Amino acid sequence: MSTIRKLDSGNFQAIVRINGFTPKHKTFQYKTDATQWADAIELELNRTSPLILHDWQTLKWTDLVDRYVIDVNQYHRGYARGDKYRASQLKKAFKHSLLSGLTPDVVDEYKLNRLEQVSSGTVKRELGYMQRVFSYVRKDLHLQVPDIFQQIRMPRDSEPRDRVPSEAEYNHILDELRLLRSPIMADLVVLAKETAMRRGELLSIKAEHLNLRTKTLLIPITKTDKPRTIPLTPEALKVLCKYASINEHTSTSGLVSGRKLFPIQPNSVTTAFRRITAKLKLSGIVFHSLRHMRITELFEMGWTEQEVCLLYTSDAADERIV
After folding, report:
1. What does 229-245 look like in DSSP terms, one character per residue?
2. What is the DSSP track for 34-55?
3. What does each of the 322 residues of the chain score in pLDDT, given as a tens digit?
4. Which of 155, 165, 156, 123 is CA-nearest to residue 284?
5. Is residue 192 a contact partner of residue 202, using CB atoms and an 8 Å limit?
6. 5 forms bridges with which residues in the sheet?
7. How many other C-beta atoms are found inside a 10 Å radius of the C-beta of residue 31?
8. How far apart are CA 227 and CA 205, in angstroms?
9. 134 alpha-carbon distance from chain centroid
10. For the chain, give me the number of helices (H) and strands (E)?
């Protein structure tokens, strides 16, 4: 396993401990760099301990999840955005289980218990991840494992979140974040509302994506796999220039490329935002609601669906809430 600890110097030390190997450690300036290094080392060490394929009924669920991550899942774009968390959750839930012990009844009981804790969408994605592991065991490891998911009913999709924060609620959230001295979260909230960008898109922004001459931002990797360039409001431009350490009235020629402007984990953003809305008793508002807020404003300003779709998303029409 790996741990990240903050040193007195302000740097972050990553430590990886795997049974049978000498512990490895390395120090980084940013926590995200330390986490990425630790994950890579952990996968590398686990790779040197190949899964011994005896009768599939003797295989441990946690070993198979690890092997799926190493062989397949780590190369998926969605691994860091959600699959890594799902793999961890499912390993924890079934840490003492053999693959043969994951019967339809056992998985169905897990489903019902999780539905009392999280949304049906979350449970559906977790069960989908389990199904992918089972499929990997059958198709890649060529083991005769029964397809238990033919006997499991997936949860219904959650009702779409169509709550749009009011201007007053938006300002309350910003005021609370600033009161708690959380400037990065406050600035991310501003950017989400001013740009209609998704969480993952915001956390992937690099300085070289900024064009100060045209006051636009390139989003090279999107949910729909179609790069797009969006105009920046004065508020959004001001925030981005601050984190890129440049003056908005200069050129982009001196930008330092390669590093993300917001070295934060996606789940940290979601958790921090959820705590603020819970404290303010703002029900039904999630971080993604800020995107809805901006798109709704654009429609109210007279933008057509075609204009919004062209600049902000290929599915903006589905997010129109007025």
Report:
1. EEE--HHHHHHHHHHHT
2. HHHHHHHHHHHHHHTSPPP-S-
3. 678 888 888 899 888 876 656 778 899 988 888 888 888 887 777 666 555 555 778 889 998 998 898 888 887 877 777 888 899 999 999 999 999 999 999 999 999 999 988 888 889 999 999 999 999 998 888 888 889 999 999 988 766 566 789 999 999 999 999 888 889 999 999 999 999 998 888 998 998 999 989 999 998 877 666 788 889 999 999 999 999 886 655 554 445 556 889 988 888 898 899 999 999 999 889 999 999 899 888 888 888 888 888 777 644 433 433 3
4. 165
5. yes
6. 13
7. 18
8. 13
9. 24
10. 13, 6
Provide the H-helix boundaries in 140-211. Answer: 167-179, 183-195, 199-202
200 touches 225 (CB < 8 A): no
DSSP structure string for 198-230:
-HHHHTT-BGGGEETTTTEEEE-S-TTS--EEE
Q: Which two tokens stand for residue 273?
A: 């935002």
The closest of 265, 310, 301, 296 to 82, measured between CA atoms, is 265
User: Could you tell me whether strands 210-211 and 24-28 are parallel, antiparallel, or unpaired per DSSP bridges?
Assistant: unpaired
Question: How many residues are listed for the chain in this entry?
Answer: 322
Residue 15's Cβ-count burial label (10 Å; 0-12, 13-18, 19+) is middle
Residue with tokens 């080392």: 41
Phi, psi of 87 (to 5 degrees): -60, -45
Q: Write out the two tokens for 294.
A: 């901006």
Residue with tokens 């890649």: 140
- Rg (Cα) of the chain, in Å, rounded? 22
Query: Which pTM was predicted?
Result: 0.59
Encoded tokens for 160: 């779409």
Alpha-carbon torsion 311, 312, 313, 317, what sign? negative
Q: H-helix or E-strand containing 281? A: none
DSSP conformational letter for 257: P
